[in-house]
Amino acid sequence: MLPSRALWRSILFLLLLAGLVMSGNNAHPDKEPKKEVAIRYPKNELRDPVEVARYRWQQEELRRAVQVYFEKAVATGDIVGAAVSIVRGDSILLSEGIGESSVGTDRKVDAHTIFRLGSLSKGFTGVLAAKLVEEGKLGWKDKVKEFFPDFRLGTPTNTEQVTFGNLLSHTSGAPYHSFTNLVEAGIPMEQIVGKFREVQPVSKPGSLYSYQNALFAISGEMMEKATGEDLDAALKKRFFDPLGMCSAVMDYETMSAMTNVAMPHIKWKRGWRSRKLNDHYYNALAAGGINASALDMAKWMRFLLGHNPEIMDRMSLESAFSPVVEIKGRSKYYQRWRGHISSHYGYGWRIHKFRELPGEAVKTMWHHGGSVNNFRNEIALYPEDDLGICVLLNSNSRLATHVIPELYQIISEVVRQEPVEMASNYLHE
């Protein structure tokens, strides 16, 4: 009599368990050993051997799938290198690099390679703002004019209405990207503040989304005045040190002196050409001056998902992701992602609503992109799935416009697979 299906599933899964053990004990002499990143199992895990094996399999299968995805992008010339982090629950599932940190060299990207984050910095600033509100040092409705008497935007009445929250949510009423050119020219923020008297507002404060760098960076200047601390010191003390984000740096001199640093690249003929690091946006740290590695970003995402309550109250943390203003239209790349319903901006974060499939429940995504010095990055967190994805690229690649939904799909497919499929996949190798 043939064995039952249940028996076959048990046999296959035992083979899987044995395979996992054997794979852990047998190194391949012709392959470079993987750099493992310490992970934590989800809290309250029962440590059932089958569940542990399933978790281990998912982690390995995800690593393989992500490796294939990015190696293809390298092979086709879409990117030079990438650093990828995926967090689920309390665990770092993946944090590693693919490709080169500098084209034509033997310098490979790994979990510790430092990238310029660009506007992913705004997410740090928004969460720091929420922390300072929690501490009672600032309020979302505090007036900019109270901190900078020389600040003016439009009429005196209009100027009086511009708040800390408006700066962080791009709702001050200034035209799109006002004085971003001065930020990129390295003009100190204290000089740029006074220039806004030359600007004619396009809307009343709080009524319209209009993306800014200079005005957003002024929020950082407000935080420095409210705390008496430099912004980098405030971030380091409240987040980077307690989270163990050891590679996060916030100035040009330190970044330039580091050895494991990704170099920026531009398209050159049929390939890529490396460029030098520049000093753009270190004068506007709040808007785009933070640098970090894949492992740093994994720790950051785990915190954002609420797994370090000793550092910040969850309700205060999530206030940074409160929708403030709608991002209208369909022209932005993220508005064309499959299942997209709506987009809003909170405090340093975009908040998207989407459906994976028609008829399914609406889900939330906390998201931001970043671009500076020919680096291009994306971060997305899915609170309902307790999931975070971050991709750092050392080239301004179009891959960034669709990498988040594609990785989300890969993760979903891995998570949905059954144990019998796991075992079958291993047996057919």
UniProtKB/TrEMBL annotation:
Signal peptide from the UniProt entry: 1-27
Domain of life: Bacteria
Domain Beta-lactamase-related: 69-398
GO molecular function: hydrolase activity
Keyword hit for Cell wall biogenesis/degradation: no
Pfam family, one: Beta-lactamase
Keyword Signal: yes
InterPro entries, per database record: AmpC-like, Beta-lactam-related, Beta-lactam/transpept-like
Keyword list, A-Z: Hydrolase, Signal
Name this protein carries in UniProt: Serine hydrolase
